[in-house]
Write a structure and sequence with these properties.
This protein has 445 residues and is mostly helical. It is 78% helix and 0% strand. The protein contains 20 helices and no strands. The chain is globular. The N and C termini lie far apart (53 Å).
Length: 445
């Protein structure tokens, strides 16, 4: 082992690696997007298609990122350059993409903090849409909560891989699952609970269409945080001998489990036809207000959202911080400060674009929407395609095979299947998501 590798941080064991990587994958989309598209696309029928897409698309790409990181033991830029000379730009694209995502994702994360406090103090009131609108378009209140969330990330990152990320993941992830299970049990006690369980898992193939497969592919791709370097950097922190495929399967399983339980919770509340922020910050508070001890359940729900957001944002922050630490030779503290300050500036612009700066438009979108759409429609799918091509075609086959079969836990008979998926299936499926995303984006301009 080289001296440089020895100096790098790393996760203490398999459980820590799984919890941290699962935390990166489990985000707001599991809770407010998956239930909606499941409802719109045939319930159990969509879930079956989604699981197929996870196996054909999400899992191979996650294995690919873990393998690149674990083999190179580098930040995203150096990782690709080390495995194929001249390909460091692919890692750079990932870092740029994840930084742009942080610009708006931290703003939403700040909203979860505000709503957790407002629910605990029972101060949301009865005008749920008005409360959301007045808060998100205000100048200072959303900024304060956004800054608090960014600073929380900063101190976790400064703590290092084991002292910060791993320690936080070991607290956050069990707490997240505990809250999720409590809410699920309570949901099943509601009059609509058993019906919700039936709606989630009963296939309705009459709702299945071409758009169902497209939605399933998109969810399978976006849910695992692949393509932006976060999983790659976490893979680089895995201990030698870590079973790459086994870890990836564990992460995919936890991510899917959270999405399914969240669907039961949302369906039980009777708001499955809402999507995104409207579901989380308007529809759900309205439902909780009609329940006994509703403010307590609302507080738990928004704490759940906040934990999901925090577990994702620390991986984003780390992906960018690792560049300054390893590529620029800075201390972890200095590198984290640069990322934190830059994120504060970008998040400030994104937050203000919903209120005071709402008149400033680029391609008809405010800064918040531009960051969201550009990364989701252009950057991440493009990075997914390039990652599959890199690992499937450009990484030396013997090196990849050695990484996955010698210590990655993939049986030699399974390796050709993974390679085939990365070479042919993943690029095609992500390209479909990319093309249809661009078409839909153009329609909405």
């Amino acid at each position: 082992m080289s001296q440089a590798t020895t100096k790098r941080g790393g996760f203490g064991g398999k459980l820590a690696a799984i919890l941290a990587a699962a935390g990166s994958a489990i985000g707001l989309g599991n809770i407010w997007r998956f239930p909606y598209i499941t409802s719109e696309n045939g319930g159990g029928a969509f879930i079956l298609i989604y699981l197929g897409c996870i196996l054909l698309l999400g899992l191979p790409l996650l294995i690919a990122e873990f393998a690149v990181g674990h083999n190179s033991k580098c930040n995203p830029i150096d990782a690709y350059a080390k495995l194929r000379k001249g390909w460091g730009w692919l890692g750079a694209m990932g870092i740029v993409s994840v930084f742009l995502i942080m610009g708006y994702y931290f703003v939403i994360s700040g909203w979860t903090l505000n709503y957790t406090i407002a629910s605990a103090t029972d101060s949301i009131g009865s005008d749920f849409g008005g409360f959301f609108s007045s808060f998100t378009t205000a100048t200072w209140r959303p900024l304060i909560y956004t800054y608090l969330f960014i600073i929380a990330n900063h101190f976790i990152i400064v703590g290092g891989v084991q002292g910060g990320i791993e320690k936080a993941s070991k607290v956050m992830m069990p707490l997240l699952f505990a809250i999720l299970i409590i809410l699920a049990i309570y949901s099943l006690w509601l009059p609509e609970g058993r019906e919700a369980l039936t709606n989630v898992f009963t296939p309705d193939f009459s709702k299945v269409s071409g758009s169902t497969f497209l939605a399933a592919m998109g969810q399978a791709f976006f849910t695992l945080s692949v393509g932006m370097g976060a999983m790659l950097i976490y893979g680089s922190y895995f201990k030698d001998g870590t079973k790459i495929a086994g870890t990836a399967i564990s992460v995919v399983s936890l991510d899917t489990l959270v999405a399914l339980i969240a669907a039961v919770i949302i369906f039980s509340a009777g708001v499955e036809n809402e999507n995104g922020p409207q579901l989380a910050f308007v529809a759900m508070p309205k439902v909780f207000s009609t329940m006994p001890l509703g403010n307590i359940w609302a507080t738990l729900f928004f704490l759940l959202l906040g934990l999901a957001a925090l577990s994702s944002t620390i991986s984003m922050h780390e992906a960018v911080t690792s560049y300054f630490v390893e590529k620029r030779g800075m201390s972890r503290n200095k590198g984290a400060i640069i990322v934190t300050v830059a994120t504060i500036l970008l998040a400030t612009a994104a937050s203000l674009s919903l209120g005071d700066w709402s008149d400033f438009k680029i391609a008809g979108m405010n800064i918040f929407s531009l960051l969201d759409n550009f990364t989701a429609i252009v950057m991440l799918p493009l990075l997914g395609i390039l990652t599959a091509i890199f690992v499937g075609w450009l990484w030396k086959s013997e090196d990849m095979k050695a990484e996955l079969t010698a210590q990655g836990g993939v049986d030699k008979a399974t390796y050709p299947v993974i390679r085939f998926l990365l070479r042919y299936v993943c690029p095609v499926l992500v390209s479909v998501v990319f093309v249809f995303g661009i078409i839909e984006f153009i329609k909405n301009l």
